[in-house]
Amino acid sequence: MRPSATTQVDAPLHLEFDDNTLLPMLFGEHDRHLVRLEQKLGVSLVSRGNRLAISGPHSAAERARDALVFLYDRLRRGLSVDMGEVDAAVRLSGDDGTGASDLFGAEALAIRTRKRHIVPRTPNQMAYMKALRDHELVFGLGPAGTGKTYLAVAAAVQMLSAGRVDRIILSRPAVEAGERLGFLPGDLREKVDPYLRPLYDALHDMLPGEQVMKRLASGEIEIAPLAFMRGRTLANAFVILDEGQNTTPVQMKMFLTRLGENSRMVVTGDLSQIDLPSGARSGLHDALDALGRVDGICLVHFGAEDVVRHPLVAKIVTAYDAHEARRRGDSKPPRPR
User: Fold this and answer.
1) Cα–Cα distance, 31 to 86 (Å, whole number)
2) d(Cα 40, Cα 123) in Å, to the nearest integer?
3) pTM of whole model > 0.85?
């Protein structure tokens, strides 16, 4: 593929593709991928044979070119391209002149598991995946749908498969059950499983079902309520605490001090979704106040722009943020979390 451009600022950019068989997948059914790029970036894309002309403001045309080069490269390596990948390429192409490096830097951070080839889809996801790779304790903070837990589980599965840790431990506070846990039907596992189901779902997205069950049975993967962490030292493990905003300060301190030799720890949470009793202080909020300046700890903040679920989810998050700001009497727009 050979990109070229004239020196005139708003002259069209041109791409020529070497493998015509990949173009139906690159362009999408009824050219819907090209239409999405046009809508997102305000450009016009016209294809003739294996050539594509990109017209529009020069910076936007460059972003479209970089996104198409990145998506075409994915297809050449046997990976898929869907609408989510197109949206991710647009986000990562940036508008500050660093788009191409960000796009291919994202591929360098790819997490490969038995069932998934996972790359970051937003700049903040890039920062998060770098932190998961480089730091022993990471806090991932932000709204639902930003990939906080999903990417942490993916990193854990990759490290377990590579033999860099001996086990994965996934935990959540069962806040909704509270003191009523004993009144729920079934044995202990049946009582707490509904609160841990999102962690099971993430695991099954990374590994074949039989592998998940085998590793759960052997203890290589453990999913347990936060209360089960007390008194343990977690060495040679990748430990994830999900929904950290629903811990108390005592619980959070207990969890963080379980970190043992050759272990990684990730805490995820959304401070706008605290389910603790009214007036109770969140352990996640307390930890951020206490540990925000401690060397070796990395904090990554996500915002509505990082939501990678249905596009409507990002709008819902933004609307609730604005509603909360109005309720507080804050005339300024809410800050990205």
Assistant:
1) 12
2) 17
3) no
